[in-house]
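Structure ticket #2291
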Amino acid sequence: MRVRTALAAGALIAVAVAPLAQARGADGVSVHGHGTVAEDSTVTLSGTYRCTDDTAGPVFVSATLRQGNRSAGIGGTRAICDGHLREWVNTSVVKDPAYRPGAAHVEARLVQLTTGGTGLPTPGFLATAESDVELH
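Resolution: structure written out below.
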């Protein structure tokens, strides 16, 4: 009887834990297909991300916007690494020359900063996504 009870308890634990493991998923990042450019040259980009572990160091969502021969980093959002799908929004004022409404390209990355051998933060890339976007 004890063996049967132990097996049943083990099966219940496995059934209870399995959905949590699947819900957590792997690290990933995506870019929404649109962004905005305000009159004061403020650029806003967004998307989604998921990260599962930030115990080695903080994780950020970085974005690079390209339009024509112009390229600039747009903000950096601190990620919450709890395995849930979350939204990110990065904003920066970019002038000289400013971005304009129209077609552009975005590369987003999940970047984890860890302490290197010199004591300085070293970036590690957990996930990368690229997407064409329309700036409005």
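Closing remark: Helices lie at 2-24.
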